[in-house]
Amino acid sequence: MELDTALVARWLEPLARRPEEIAEIFAETRREASVDWVDGQSSEVRTQRTEGVSARWRRGTRQCLAFVSRRDEEAARDAVRAVQREAGVSTMPVRPVRPREAAPEEEEPHALERWARRLPAILARHAPRHRLRWTLREIDRQLIPPRGAAASFSRRLLSLEGSFTAASRRGDETRRFSFHAPLADATGDELKSALARAAEPRDTANPCGDGETDAVLAGGCAAVLFHEILSHPLESGVESPLSGLEQARLAPSEVEVRDDPGRLDLFGGYERDDEGTAPRAVKLLDAGRLAGRMTDRSHGPAPSNGHSRRAGPEDAPLPRGSNVIVAPGPATSEEITRRLAAGLWIEEIDGGSVELASGRFRLRFPRARRVRRGRLADECGGGFLSGEILPVLSSIDPALGREQRPYRALGWCARGGLVVPIQGCAPDVLVRRLRVRAIA
Hints:
17% of the residues lie in helices and 39% in strands. The chain is α+β, with helices and mostly antiparallel strands. Strands 1, 2, 3, 4, 5, 6 and 7 form a seven-stranded antiparallel sheet that branches. The chain has a six-stranded mixed sheet with strand order 11-10-9-14-22-19, with helices on one face. A hairpin with a 2-residue loop joins strand 20 (412-415) and strand 21.
């Protein structure tokens, strides 16, 4: 249900009489449908609908937020009155809200039915023995300020996560699978390709060993590295080893990285941020130099560049990353393998974290290939890559891969327990002198 923007804006006016004051109503409806698939058999469709309205007021470092778990004018009025009381503003007169007839729910345009028919054939061909969960999320949001235009925006996101049994040359093995993409006509074909790659036969893996190694992050998975060592440290208001290094050269001049919410083909894209600002791409590294930060209206001295994000309507917005994009270079995979000479070739990263105070990060990979004398050699098992932000940025090889790939296994980011959709796109990237530890 869309709120009456003119009515709600009038309620907010007493909260934003000074230029430095921010006031707004944020409303969200989230619909989720999920189906569990076990060896071709599906469970019943589980559906969930949640909605809510929050009012926010901010002046300087002082902020008030009130949340009501409904989405209608009465809920908006209650939230505004609660914020007014907390902010010490004269509350609005108690006037009953004239009930409006709820607009009829738009029927789902057969997306569930289409995928219920299509998914079994995809799984039967590429992963007949599986335990997977298919989820479709539809998120509708509305942002109303006291003055200026209101904004409405929506996203439809598809995920398939779980495990399947795949063949290896010495027996079957269980492999994890994760795929996240905005719902589009090409999503099914992309999912088929991702499953086919994940199900390819492999040799039995040997332990990867502990120590120091050079590694190529291939298949787009370098996006996870840059998400941890650039996106998180460059969210406005965050202190990290990158603080105070604006315009410093941190990486080879060939390395260019940006955060781009406008890439709606990626899982983290959006047309408006959660303060209603049209987002723009932000250069994080420009020719190897630290170039910018992700900002919103509430944090940092810089104007907002549209990176304000909320995990839900009950949460205050924070500057967050969206889609980290690493520019490609001229090198082929064969050239990068020769430059690596000896080390690890990694195409999957299934987890990452960073400690911002120290700059230490860790990435988990489920498998890798050893490279010896510039050629791919034997399979090795999973492990952890680790390092520190500044040394690793300086140790990136300038020869970047020419093919840029979206990394669909990357879909969600948690910061302080607040989870938002993100993704990334990257070429093959060679990093020197990483620490590696095998998974026990």
